Amino acid sequence: MIASAQNATAIVFPRCEEGVELVTHYSIGLEPSGPTMYTWSGRFSTPISVVPGFTPSFPMDSCCLGFGADPATEERDGRVGDGFKRAFMEWFFLNAPIPKLGSGVLGSDLPRALMVAMHTADPGPSGNQSTSESRYRGYARVPIYRGRPGWSVLSRDE
User: Residue 94: which of 103, 104, 86, 102 has the closest Cα?
Assistant: First the structure.
Protein backbone atom coordinates (compact mmCIF):
# COMPACT_ATOMS: atom_id res chain seq x y z
CA MET A 1 0.00 0.00 0.00
CA ILE A 2 1.06 3.55 -0.68
CA ALA A 3 -0.05 6.33 1.65
CA SER A 4 0.26 9.83 0.24
CA ALA A 5 -0.78 13.40 0.81
CA GLN A 6 -1.63 16.02 -1.78
CA ASN A 7 -2.27 19.72 -1.64
CA ALA A 8 -6.04 20.07 -1.43
CA THR A 9 -5.88 23.73 -2.38
CA ALA A 10 -4.01 25.68 -5.04
CA ILE A 11 -0.53 26.89 -4.06
CA VAL A 12 0.13 30.46 -5.16
CA PHE A 13 3.65 31.88 -4.83
CA PRO A 14 4.51 35.58 -4.81
CA ARG A 15 4.75 37.37 -8.15
CA CYS A 16 8.15 37.48 -9.82
CA GLU A 17 9.46 41.06 -9.74
CA GLU A 18 12.84 40.32 -11.31
CA GLY A 19 14.79 37.28 -12.49
CA VAL A 20 14.19 34.30 -14.74
CA GLU A 21 14.08 30.69 -13.52
CA LEU A 22 12.91 27.26 -14.57
CA VAL A 23 11.21 25.63 -11.58
CA THR A 24 11.30 21.82 -11.64
CA HIS A 25 10.88 20.63 -8.02
CA TYR A 26 9.09 21.43 -4.78
CA SER A 27 9.73 20.63 -1.15
CA ILE A 28 7.78 20.66 2.10
CA GLY A 29 9.49 21.93 5.24
CA LEU A 30 8.75 23.49 8.60
CA GLU A 31 10.43 26.92 8.49
CA PRO A 32 9.54 30.03 6.47
CA SER A 33 13.18 30.65 5.45
CA GLY A 34 16.74 29.44 5.80
CA PRO A 35 18.64 26.21 5.20
CA THR A 36 16.30 24.06 7.24
CA MET A 37 15.61 20.37 6.70
CA TYR A 38 12.83 19.41 4.36
CA THR A 39 10.53 16.47 4.90
CA TRP A 40 9.51 15.62 1.33
CA SER A 41 10.42 16.79 -2.13
CA GLY A 42 9.14 15.97 -5.57
CA ARG A 43 9.26 16.89 -9.24
CA PHE A 44 6.56 18.91 -10.93
CA SER A 45 5.10 17.05 -13.90
CA THR A 46 5.77 20.10 -16.09
CA PRO A 47 8.60 22.58 -15.41
CA ILE A 48 7.44 26.17 -14.98
CA SER A 49 9.22 29.18 -16.50
CA VAL A 50 9.17 32.04 -14.03
CA VAL A 51 9.67 35.48 -15.60
CA PRO A 52 9.05 39.05 -14.38
CA GLY A 53 5.34 39.73 -13.94
CA PHE A 54 4.46 36.03 -13.63
CA THR A 55 2.77 34.63 -10.50
CA PRO A 56 3.71 30.96 -10.13
CA SER A 57 0.84 28.79 -8.98
CA PHE A 58 0.18 25.09 -8.86
CA PRO A 59 -3.27 23.56 -8.94
CA MET A 60 -4.82 21.31 -6.37
CA ASP A 61 -3.26 17.80 -6.26
CA SER A 62 -0.06 18.90 -8.05
CA CYS A 63 2.21 18.16 -5.04
CA CYS A 64 1.92 14.49 -4.18
CA LEU A 65 4.05 13.29 -1.28
CA GLY A 66 4.17 9.94 0.38
CA PHE A 67 5.89 6.70 0.96
CA GLY A 68 5.12 3.38 -0.50
CA ALA A 69 6.53 -0.04 -0.92
CA ASP A 70 9.53 -1.27 -2.82
CA PRO A 71 9.12 -5.05 -2.35
CA ALA A 72 12.85 -5.71 -2.76
CA THR A 73 13.79 -3.14 -0.11
CA GLU A 74 11.01 -4.26 2.25
CA GLU A 75 12.11 -7.87 2.03
CA ARG A 76 15.65 -6.92 3.02
CA ASP A 77 15.04 -3.97 5.40
CA GLY A 78 11.65 -4.70 6.96
CA ARG A 79 8.18 -3.28 6.45
CA VAL A 80 6.12 -0.36 7.67
CA GLY A 81 2.55 -1.45 8.35
CA ASP A 82 -0.17 -0.08 6.07
CA GLY A 83 -2.18 1.29 8.99
CA PHE A 84 0.83 3.16 10.35
CA LYS A 85 1.69 4.64 6.93
CA ARG A 86 -1.74 6.22 6.76
CA ALA A 87 -1.75 7.23 10.45
CA PHE A 88 1.64 8.93 10.03
CA MET A 89 0.50 10.85 6.94
CA GLU A 90 -2.68 11.94 8.74
CA TRP A 91 -0.62 13.05 11.76
CA PHE A 92 1.87 15.03 9.70
CA PHE A 93 -0.46 16.61 7.14
CA LEU A 94 -3.85 16.72 8.90
CA ASN A 95 -2.70 17.20 12.51
CA ALA A 96 -4.61 14.05 13.53
CA PRO A 97 -3.40 12.20 16.62
CA ILE A 98 -1.87 8.73 16.43
CA PRO A 99 -3.62 6.84 19.23
CA LYS A 100 -1.99 4.04 21.22
CA LEU A 101 1.56 5.11 20.38
CA GLY A 102 2.93 5.66 23.85
CA SER A 103 0.42 8.00 25.42
CA GLY A 104 -0.66 9.07 21.93
CA VAL A 105 1.14 11.41 19.54
CA LEU A 106 -0.55 14.76 19.06
CA GLY A 107 -0.10 16.64 15.83
CA SER A 108 0.09 19.97 17.62
CA ASP A 109 3.79 19.31 18.35
CA LEU A 110 4.54 20.59 14.83
CA PRO A 111 4.04 24.10 13.45
CA ARG A 112 0.55 24.94 12.25
CA ALA A 113 1.71 25.32 8.66
CA LEU A 114 3.96 23.35 6.37
CA MET A 115 6.12 25.52 4.14
CA VAL A 116 6.15 24.78 0.40
CA ALA A 117 9.26 25.84 -1.51
CA MET A 118 10.06 25.84 -5.24
CA HIS A 119 13.40 24.57 -6.56
CA THR A 120 15.29 24.87 -9.84
CA ALA A 121 16.76 21.37 -9.34
CA ASP A 122 16.27 18.37 -7.08
CA PRO A 123 17.43 19.31 -3.54
CA GLY A 124 18.57 15.70 -3.13
CA PRO A 125 18.46 13.50 -0.04
CA SER A 126 21.40 15.28 1.64
CA GLY A 127 20.24 18.80 0.71
CA ASN A 128 18.05 21.16 2.70
CA GLN A 129 15.14 23.42 1.86
CA SER A 130 17.51 26.14 0.59
CA THR A 131 19.32 23.78 -1.82
CA SER A 132 18.51 24.92 -5.39
CA GLU A 133 15.64 27.03 -3.98
CA SER A 134 14.11 29.69 -6.21
CA ARG A 135 15.69 33.10 -5.82
CA TYR A 136 13.68 35.46 -8.02
CA ARG A 137 12.97 38.86 -6.49
CA GLY A 138 9.65 38.61 -4.65
CA TYR A 139 9.92 34.85 -3.95
CA ALA A 140 8.95 33.42 -0.56
CA ARG A 141 7.93 29.99 0.70
CA VAL A 142 4.18 29.51 0.94
CA PRO A 143 2.49 28.22 4.12
CA ILE A 144 -0.17 25.55 3.71
CA TYR A 145 -1.92 24.87 6.98
CA ARG A 146 -1.95 21.35 8.35
CA GLY A 147 -5.41 19.89 8.06
CA ARG A 148 -8.25 20.34 5.67
CA PRO A 149 -8.68 22.14 3.33
CA GLY A 150 -4.87 22.46 2.94
CA TRP A 151 -4.06 18.76 2.49
CA SER A 152 -5.74 15.47 1.72
CA VAL A 153 -4.42 12.02 2.63
CA LEU A 154 -4.99 9.00 0.39
CA SER A 155 -4.21 5.29 0.54
CA ARG A 156 -4.09 2.91 -2.38
CA ASP A 157 -2.85 -0.57 -3.13
CA GLU A 158 -0.06 -0.95 -5.67
Answer: 86
How far, in Å, CA of 113 to CA of 77, rounded?
Answer: 32
Rounded Cα distance, 93 and 107, in Å = 9
Residue 35 neighbours by CB distance under 10 Å: 12
- Per DSSP, 93 falls in state H
Return the amino acid letter for 142. V
Spell out the domain ranges in the chain. Answer: 2-156
Contact 45, 115 (CB under 8 A): no
Closest of 64, 67, 94 to residue 80, by C-alpha? 67
Residue 49: Cβ-neighbour burial (10 angstroms; 0-12, 13-18, 19+):
exposed
pTM score: 0.84
Per-residue pLDDT reduced to its tens digit, 15-24: 999 999 999 9
For 81-101, what is each residue's pLDDT tens digit?
778 888 888 888 888 888 777
